[in-house]
Amino acid sequence: MPRRFRRATGFHVYLAIGSFLLIGATAIKLVWDGSARKSTEIESPRYVANGFDFVELPVPLSEVERGAPLGSVEYATVSWSRANSPDSYVQNIEQFKNARAIMTLASRVPIPLSSVTTGDMDTNALIEKIPEGMRAITVAVNEETAVEGWAQSGTYVDVISLSADSKDGKLAARVIAENVKILSAGRSLVPSAVGDTAPRAPTTVTILCNQKDALKIKMAAKVGSITFSLRGVVDSEPTRVVTLNENTLHGGLEHNASPSSRYVGEAKGPDGSVYYLRKGDYKWVKRGAAVEAVDSPEASQP
Full-prediction pTM beyond 0.90? Predict the structure, then answer.
């Protein structure tokens, strides 16, 4: 065989072997890259930094008030270590967009599952009847203090304190809260049925009052006793006589509530009636014809 032919044949053999090895290496790389990409797609998104495994948790961008729906809040995400129990926090906000906060949620902090609820915020019907800024307190009553049982859910009463006068130690009666609504009587929110006789008097009633009156009523129940005076259906007039002691009972002067000490302002309403701004709770009280001569500021002038 000619030497030139042998050299050419050897060259082609080497070229074929090199091409085969190159093609094999390329195929192996493609298989390896495909396997790595497939593995990455199957695993849940996560990353590792400084040897710790992290997940992304939603955090509110501003403080969330109690009762606010989570779906109305703007969120960002923070990295949270899997070692710090991420399962105890909200991870997918979409699953909780109809939930509500049962406590104030701090801004830019993960939301604990224990701080939200997907059910009804109100645990009982009484809570719905308490306006913002008001309080409900319970006091013990009997047939006498509850006006034979007529003081039932939905009625309004004045709360009277009976205790010793701090000056002479004699018994004194004072109106310490006016026009107070009874929310519940004997754990019932349902008003008594219309009839000729009152239901059995409850042993306790829950009343609605402002925060100051709540303190006064509770204190009065400890240092003496309290009782109710029942108001009429449409009677919202202020009480004229707020204090009476034993001296008054035996012929002394009544401690009438003078307008100068009970009212701090006067205005004419859109209905044409005159209203007084009552001192203490700063409520506008309509002047009634029956007490106009006594309660009007003009009557207090010399």
Answer: no
E-state strands within 82-203: 100-101, 116-117, 134-140, 156-164, 171-185
Residue 297 class from Cβ within 10 Å (0-12 exposed, 13-18 middle, 19+ buried)? middle
How far, in Å, CA of 159 to CA of 176, rounded? 6
DSSP 129-161: G--TTEEEEEEE--TTTTGGGT--TT-EEEEEE
Beta-carbon contacts of 258 under 8 Å, excluding residues fewer than 6 positions away, are 300
CB 261 within 8 A of CB 280: no
**Per-residue pLDDT reduced to its tens digit, 1-21:** 555 444 555 556 566 666 666
As a whole number of angstroms, the distance between CA 163 and CA 242 comes to: 14
Measure CA 64 to chain center: 12
Q: What is the spatial distance between Cα 154 and Cα 181, in angstroms, rounded to a whole number?
A: 6
CA-based torsion, 131, 137, 143, 147: positive or negative: negative
pLDDT in tens, 167-183: 777 889 999 999 999 99
